[in-house]
Amino acid sequence: MQIQKFETLRDLFTYSIDKYKTNTAFAYVGGYNYTYAQFGTKTEFISNLLTSSGIGPGDKVALFSHNMPNWPAAYFAATAFGMVVVPILPDFSDFEVRNVIEHSEAKALIVSKRLLYKVPQDIMSSLNIVIDADTLEVLFQKQGLTPSEVRFTKEDELATIIYTSGTTGNSKGVMLSHKNLCSHLYAAFKLRPSFEWDIWLSVLPLSHTLESSLSMLLPIMSGASVYFMEKAPTPSLLIKALQEVRPTTMLTVPMIIEKIYRSSVLAKFNANPVTRYIYSTTLGRKALNIVAGKKLMKTFGGRIRFFGIGGAKLDGDVERFLYESKFPYAIGYGLTETCPLLAGAVPSNVKWQSTGPAVHGVTLRIDNPNPVTGEGEIVAKGPNVMMGYYKNPEATEQAFTKDGYFRTKDLGLIDKEGRLYIKGRLTNMILGPSGENIYPEEIETVINGHPMVAESIVTQYKGKLIAFVHFNPDKLKALNEAKEEALNAYYEKKEQLMQTYEEKKDMLMHTYEEKKGEAIHVYEETKEDIVNAFNEKIEQLKKEVSEYVNSRVNKFSKISVVEDKPHQFEKTATQKIKRYLYVDKKK
Questions:
Q1: Is residue 533 domain-resident?
Q2: Which structural domain range is residue 567 located in?
Q3: Dihedral of the alpha carbons of 398, 400, 401, 404, in degrees to the nearest 10
Q4: DSSP letters along 59-111, please?
Q5: What would the pLDDT profile of 346-383 be if each residue is shown by its tens digit?
Q6: Is 332 helix (H, G, I), strand (E, B) or coil?
Q7: pLDDT, greater one: 345 or 579
Q8: Alpha carbon distance, N-terminus to C-terminus of the chain
Q9: Count of CB atoms within 10 A of residue 231's CB?
Q10: Quick one: 424 and 469 in the same domain?
């Protein structure tokens, strides 16, 4: 099959709206939709609003919106008409929104109603124009502006600046050119072609390069249809959407499929002693996984042919289930700075725990490899590698090796077949007492395999490994309910007792205060016993997790302390835990 090549996003835009006029382009699940011709009209309408407000070639247009059919139109209204789009992640705080708009020097903002409250008023009034992403109505526009002329950009010119939420705590503006994005599009299509009949369900934020490049640009190239959910993809709403849309293609992050496996597949197998035993054997596990895989395929609508996973490392047990169940999954690896794909595979070519070989046009290398394990930092070179960080030459210089390779700061190895294996984050790696390389991500994978654990972080404090663990709230529900029931009974009896003593106050006279005090003391001890009993169960649970993990890892990776974190960890757009918020606390 001959693959179409584009030099700029303008070329992609004009090609698709002309070739696929009547195809459905973007739609809400169960809601309105645009054909490619209508998509083109909407895009030009937004672009005209921008140019009429003095937004010209090279000017920045901030896009702060949840996924919706108007999102791609807003994106191309800038990039296909000589402007630069600056997507902002929906979970950014008002402080981060201010920082992005000010730092990027954006002159226009396209924002959805649900996020408008995060935009400071002084920022709104400083812009040339503010457009409602939902209705495309103008919310604010400066008066007396001179309309700009349209100038289409060249391939080496800037197309977008993407500010990373990152796990380091410091957002940087990644500059991607038209050439970066179009060369990446060619490589992605070459790896895994998309077709007119493909139906995509988009659940990750389009503001992130993983989703915008692979669930927007790639289907546009083939005239495929993309569906968005109006509300957050909770399990019940997601299942409903899958049944309605019946997608052929979907991208996700490890956490989503890991939750499905642990809460649905594994939980059902472990609920029955017979199936639990069968699943503990190799042959039994493979047989049950095939059965579960058929049910999973049905849950996803029955016609999915590509289930892409990226953004973080996939748990080994979960991947084994996907592989043995014959579910059409594939894993990719990349970064915002590389558009994002650097390596990837297709369902027919996956290998357990590998991200696959380098994609077309990309060269991967392992720098400073360990002479024994072959593990070292992954560095990359290719036409999809960013122009640099916006207004940050120091960070840009540090991001590249002397011979021009981009430093991913990820640790990995490449096998003889050219397949890449990710070991962990260079900045997360812990140096053991005898110089061993300890990868916290690998220990966390083991911890998360415990049925009572939802998520975890491993860090080092005073030479010892500590695990922060958020227990599964559904599994803790029974313990909490027992505690609450006991406490409610305590409060009820205490109230009855106090009422009794108040009624007999005159009769008891001088003994009243003494008797009341004794009763309160007894009941306060009861309350303390209830709370202590609950805490003891939590402590026992922490001990069980520690023993569970330490029986499964090498001696250098054993956990010394398990700390309970009652609330979920804060996460990035690709559901990676913001480690810096927790790890730094123990340094």
A1: yes
A2: 453-586
A3: -150
A4: -EEEEE--S-THHHHHHHHHHTTT-EEEE--TT--HHHHHHHHHHHT-SEEEE
A5: 999 999 999 999 999 999 999 999 888 899 999 999 99
A6: strand
A7: 345
A8: 55
A9: 9
A10: no
3-state secondary structure of 581: helix
**What 8-state DSSP symbol labels residue 213?**
I
Q: Same structural domain for residues 581 and 478? A: yes
User: What CA–CA distance (Å, rounded) separates 306 from 323?
Assistant: 13
The answer on 365 and 257 residing in a single domain is yes
Residue 500 has pLDDT above 70, yes or no: no
CA–CA dist 245, 266 (Å, integer): 26
Residue with tokens 């609950």: 534
Two structure tokens written together for 546: 């520690």
Nearest CA to 230 out of 203, 207, 259 is that of 203
- Mean pLDDT over each residue of the chain, to the nearest integer: 88
Tokens of 179: 């050439």
Run of H or E including 343? strand 341-344
The CATH number assigned to the domain holding 295 equals 3.40.50.12780
Enter the tokens of residue 550.
């330490």
Q: Is the pLDDT of residue 391 over 60?
A: yes
Residues 424 and 464 in one domain: no
Q: Give the tens place of pLDDT for each residue, 253-292.
A: 888 898 888 888 888 898 899 999 999 999 999 999 999 9
Residue with tokens 């003889």: 416
Same domain, 348 and 459: no
Cross-strand partners of 460: 465
> Comparing 67-71, 270-274, 342-346, 510-514, which segment has the lowest mean pLDDT?
510-514
For residue 496, tell me if it sits in a domain. yes
- Per-residue pLDDT, 166: 42
Q: 455 exposed, middle or buried (CB, 10 Å; 0-12, 13-18, 19+)?
A: buried
What's the rounded mean pLDDT across residues 152-171? Answer: 79
- Count: domains in the chain: 3
Q: What is the pLDDT of residue 522?
A: 55
Residue 457: strand, helix, or coil? strand
Together in a domain, 489 and 574: yes
Q: How far apart are CA 357 and CA 170, in angstroms?
A: 30
Q: What is the CATH number of the domain that holds 114?
A: 3.40.50.980
For 145, half-sphere exposure in the C-beta direction (CA atoms, 13 angstrom radius) is 20
Q: Of 387, 414, 429, which one is at a domain's C-terminal end? A: 429
Q: What is the DSSP annotation of 255-309?
A: HHHHHHIIIIIIHHHHHSHHHHHHHTSHHHHHHHHHHHHHHHHHHTTS---EEEE
CA 267 to chain centre: 24
340 secondary structure, DSSP code? S
**pTM value?**
0.82
3-class DSSP assignment, residue 547? helix
Q: What confidence score (pLDDT) does residue 406 get?
A: 98
Whether residue 209 is contained in a domain is answered as no
